[in-house]
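Document type: protein sequence-to-structure record

Subject area: structural biology

Format: plain text, a pair of labelled lines:
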Amino acid sequence: MSDPAWIEVDDYIVGHLLGPDAALESALAANAAGGLPAIDVSAAQGKMLHLLARMAGAKRILEVGTLGGYSTIWLARALPADGRLVTLELEPHHAEVARDNIAAAGLADKVDIRIGPAIDSLDAMIAAGEGPFDFVFIDADKPGNVAYLRAAIALSRPGATIIVDNVVREGGVLDAASDDPRIQGSRALFEAVAAEHRLSATAVQTVGAKKWDGFLLAVLGAPHA
């Protein structure tokens, strides 16, 4: 499902409010050349993530799902000089492409790419007492959403922002009978967030170059006594 006007509006937004960006354009070109799937956030969405991280005053950012580092670059640019971003990627080839893209953007000193199943990396981080993080962006395999959310809560400070991508799935989230594990993962995420008293959350539908989808946005509060 798509509408040409959605892409035209995205182009209008980018042309007026973002403008050209050599590092990000090169990253997308490198991703395509490397055979990575074209599932990065759009430019307008990347700028939104950047602004949200700045609004949150984030000094430590956690990203679950690196791909080629496009969203990583947007987020890392929001960090102060002493900020740090940890990003988790399953595929070594994706991580290699991302590492080159991040270095070309001049951000290698701010970004730590960790390779392997994200839940294993997250469990290791929790065991090591890493964090706390101020901002978390989850954009990985959708069946893992609930596990990633719980790990994000464990690794974040009260007041942290947690954002999860691709939660609407062109309306598929309404289909309780779907056998698509991505839809079931999104539905399970909504149930988990609704049951988590420490989270204040909403979700926003989006249309544009990435068709019809949406983000879940949450703020972590202090645990109840």
In short: The longest helix spans residues 4-18. The two ends are 46 Å apart (CA to CA).
